[in-house]
């Protein structure tokens, strides 16, 4: 099965930084954000309160910090590499759908090299060999590449932001090796990836805490990021080194 991509609320902080420094929003994108499709806002705000005020501070945050604090780093890195390797085939297919043959070839090479020589992916041999580690691409990203809209925005309890377009991502679970995962294995993948994400963003918590409307901020940033992913793939662009340096400087200021 396709494991749920971790979307605990704090993952949106890194999304905000990437979306904010990647390009200045034009009038069209600002209009898109202001008219975000949120027909379930009342329900979503209740779910946000549950996630933000209860699940995160009392469950997600302490468990994540315990995992990172007590698990040896080499073990955590190996687990992260293994889990990431499971997504390479589906990312290869989705890049082919988007017409990104070069990226698809990289995903293919990374999968067979790391699976064969990297102990099923626990060791990232492909990166050492100079094969670029591209971001995971889901079918929903491919649909966005061809102009399919996000659809209604939904805040899922214990999971986070979600759009109807992302429901297409279940197709990714039909590719090996994700198709070999049962429910519990998929849940474990989601939890382990989510704990790493949550723990890495502790220093950025103040950004949401200081917002006058954390729900609206999260919604707008998430939709902007979804639109940005579709736009960047349609133009075959990547965040350049100057923008990455800007992001690093911004993070340093937060620490």
From TrEMBL:
Which PROSITE patterns does this one have? PROKAR_LIPOPROTEIN (PS51257)
Q: Which organism is it from?
A: Vibrio panuliri
* Family annotation (PANTHER family): INTERMEMBRANE PHOSPHOLIPID TRANSPORT SYSTEM LIPOPROTEIN MLAA (PTHR30035:SF3), LIPOPROTEIN VACJ-RELATED (PTHR30035)
Annotated GO CC locations: membrane
InterPro entries on file: MlaA (IPR007428)
* Superkingdom per UniProt: Bacteria
- Pfam families reported for this sequence: MlaA
Q: Name one GO biological process term.
A: intermembrane phospholipid transfer
Please provide the record's keywords in A-Z order: Signal
Residues in the signal sequence: 1-24
The name under which this protein is listed is ABC transporter
The UniProt similarity line reads: Belongs to the MlaA family.
């Amino acid at each position: 099965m396709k494991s749920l991509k971790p979307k605990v609320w704090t993952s949106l902080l890194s999304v905000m930084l990437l979306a904010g420094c990647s390009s200045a929003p034009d009038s069209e994108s600002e209009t898109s954000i202001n008219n975000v499709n949120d027909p379930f806002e009342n329900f979503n705000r209740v779910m946000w309160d549950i996630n933000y005020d209860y699940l995160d501070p009392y469950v997600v945050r302490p468990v994540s910090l315990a995992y990172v604090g007590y698990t040896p780093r080499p073990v955590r890195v190996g687990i992260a590499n293994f889990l990431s390797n499971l997504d390479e085939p589906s990312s290869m297919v989705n890049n082919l759908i988007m017409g990104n043959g070069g990226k698809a070839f990289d995903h293919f090479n990374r999968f067979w090299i790391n699976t064969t020589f990297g102990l099923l992916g626990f060791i990232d041999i492909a990166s050492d060999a100079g094969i670029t580690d591209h971001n995971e691409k889901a079918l929903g990203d491919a649909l966005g590449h061809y102009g399919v809209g996000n659809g209604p925005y939904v805040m899922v309890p214990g999971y986070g932001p979600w759009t109807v377009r992302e429901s297409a991502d279940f197709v990714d679970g039909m590719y090996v090796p994700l198709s070999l995962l049962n429910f519990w294995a998929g849940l474990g993948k989601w939890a382990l990836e989510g704990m790493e994400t949550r723990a890495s963003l502790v220093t950025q918590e103040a950004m949401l805490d200081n917002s006058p409307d954390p729900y609206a901020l999260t919604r707008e940033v998430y939709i902007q990021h979804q639109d940005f992913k579709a736009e960047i793939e349609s133009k075959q662009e990547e965040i350049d080194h100057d923008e990455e340096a800007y992001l690093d400087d911004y993070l340093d200021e937060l620490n």
